Amino acid sequence: MKQNLLRILLLVLVSSGPATALDLTPTVSEYTAEGITFHQLNFQDGKRRAVYEPPRLWSFRGGGSRLQLTPRNVDRADAVIEAIEVKAPQKFDEKAVDALREQFLRGLPPGGQAVTMVSEEQNPVSLENSVSYAFTASYSAIGESFIRSVVFVNLPETQLTFRLTARKGDFQAVQNQFRPSIFSWHWVEPYPAASVVQK
Predict the structure, then answer these.
(1) Predicted confidence (pLDDT) per residue in 148-157, tens digit
(2) Least crowded by CB within 10 Å, which of 38, 83, 124, 155?
(3) Quick check: 121 and 91 in contact, CB under 8 A?
(4) How far are the Cα atoms of 26, 29, 147, 185 from residue 23, in angstroms, in the given order?
(5) What does the alpha-carbon distance between residue 164 and residue 91 come to, in Å, rounded to a whole number?
(6) Buried-state track 154-163, b at ≥16 Cβ within 10 A, e below 16
């Protein structure tokens, strides 16, 4: 009986503890500037809140560790943001970059042909003084040429990836909208609890 009671108490304590993983289920807020309405997406990250402003007029849906965005009036283009928990801060040394390059190439669509690495960039974006690394490759699939770019951002407890895929002719225009939006990503600390002064 006592063991069962202890187990139940332990389960309650574990299940009621604060969530530590970044949850990409968006809560939408809006603001208006110079007559234009902008959307901000809010994500729960433990006690903090992450805030991201997607490109204007892009649609979005997400949940768990993944958020998908789609540009308006651009066929076969999309962006995906993913959050992966890590046990310790990751560095972009030569070994880590080689592993990420392999991961990036393996993540290209199955059946893609004529795969060519277009570029690699060190620290293309910075979030909370973190390090980042980006890979861009072109490939052919379903009779068309595509370009995919992935930015890996290593935070203390999370690796964020920002992936963009579009047809070769559309990629630069879509990239010019998506890449700057990454810089809007930031965290908001909770308000400190009000302290009660007693006499």
Answers:
(1) 999 999 998 8
(2) 38
(3) no
(4) 8, 16, 28, 14
(5) 23
(6) bbeebbbbbb
Helix/strand/coil for 178: helix
Domain ranges of the chain: 56-188
Neighbours of 133 (CB within 10 A): 21
pLDDT digits (tens, 9 = 90+) for 44-80: 998 999 999 999 999 999 999 999 999 999 999 999 9
Half-sphere exposure for 90 (CA within 13 Å, toward CB): 21
Q: Spell out the residues 6+ positions from residue 125 whose beta carbon is closer than 8 angstroms to its own.
A: 132, 151, 153, 162, 179, 182, 183
Give the residue from 68, 15, 21 showing the smallest Cα distance to 41.
Answer: 68
| Phi/psi at 155 (5° precision) | -105, 170
First-to-last alpha carbon distance for the chain, in angstroms, is: 45
Residue whose C-alpha is closest to residue 69's, from 58, 83, 56, 84:
58
Task: Domain 56-188: give its CATH code.
Answer: 3.40.1000.10
Calpha distance 100→72 (Å, rounded): 30
Q: How far apart are CA 29 and CA 34, in angstroms?
A: 17
Task: Provide the whole-model pTM.
Answer: 0.84
